[in-house]
Amino acid sequence: MDRIQIEQTVLAVLRTMLKQQFDSSADITREHSPNWDSLKHIEIMFALEDELGVAFSEQELANLDGFQKIVEAVWQKNAA
Amino acid sequence: MLHDIRIDGSLYRLRPVTDGDAALILELRSDPELNRFLHATSGMIVDQLGWLAKYYQREGDYYFAIERRSDGNSEGFVALYDIDWSTKTGEWGRWILRPGSLAAVESAYLIYSVAFDRLGLESVYCRTVAGNVKVVSFHDSCGIANRKVLPGHFELSGGWHDAVEHCVDCAFWMELRPRLASLVGSAAKRINRA
């Protein structure tokens, strides 16, 4: 999976789970998305694992709190 | 009140709060990132211990530490209180977690389990400062449709703030339980695979 595909998949999951359209993917963070709460976060991370075929560590599950961080983490896993 | 309710989940358990938890309660409630929507807390451990001493005497108040099963470390606190046994209702709150903790869903699941399955309550409500949008959203994400705004309910830092009250009854708990249990089980599987 290339980086564009990763970005598209992450964006699609976030749009679906948060039921929200975003003007710019750079703006998508937990801090700036009021409905990205603790329950949604777990659902988002599990959906991403399933869609992208990756496994996040517990630390990643807790700390991946925005589009850019998620894409970078998945990209690094793909490269590894 | 002094109680002996312990309940194990998949990754976490609830156990009674003791004096040994005072330092962590104080630490969390003094964290400016966590205490924006809480009543002011004294920074003195002796005052926290004094608060706990009164709590131990207060009937219908069940205060729990949220403890990681694997290592026994506490990651936060939650409580059930103001229980009215005549109507079998109560409030849950005092919910606070260490930053980065993944215990939110499971601790909510466990406190509902205590309320409905252990204590036999028929409904439980949670009142959240309306500006605490993440926690309001958490309850909304649980699908709790029985919600209302209580204008000027909370006095914090000298000002009055609306509360959002989410109420769960036994019938809705039957719907919510499997959904939360599924998320809790899935989280445990994924975290334990490491």
Radius of gyration of chain A: 11 Å
SS element count, helices of chain A: 4
* SSE string of chain B: EEHHEEEHEHEEH
- H-E order of chain A: HHHH
Please describe the biggest sheet of chain A, giving its number of strands, its sense, and whether it closes into a barrel: none
Instruction: Characterize the largest beta sheet of chain B: strand count, sense, and whether it forms a barrel.
Output: 8 strands, mixed
Structural domain count of chain B = 1
Strand order of the largest sheet of chain B: 1-2-3-4-5-6-8-7
The overall strand count of chain A is: 0
For the largest interface, the chains and their residue counts are: A-B, 18 and 20 residues
* pLDDT < 50 runs, ≥5 residues of chain B: none
CATH structural fold name of chain B: Aminopeptidase
Give the termini distance of chain A in whole angstroms.
13 Å
Mean pLDDT reading of chain B? 95
The CATH architecture of chain B is 3-Layer(aba) Sandwich
Say what oligomer this is.
heterodimer
Percent strand of chain A = under 5%
CATH top level of chain B is: Alpha Beta
User: Level of helix content of chain B?
Assistant: 25-40%
Number of helices of chain B: 5
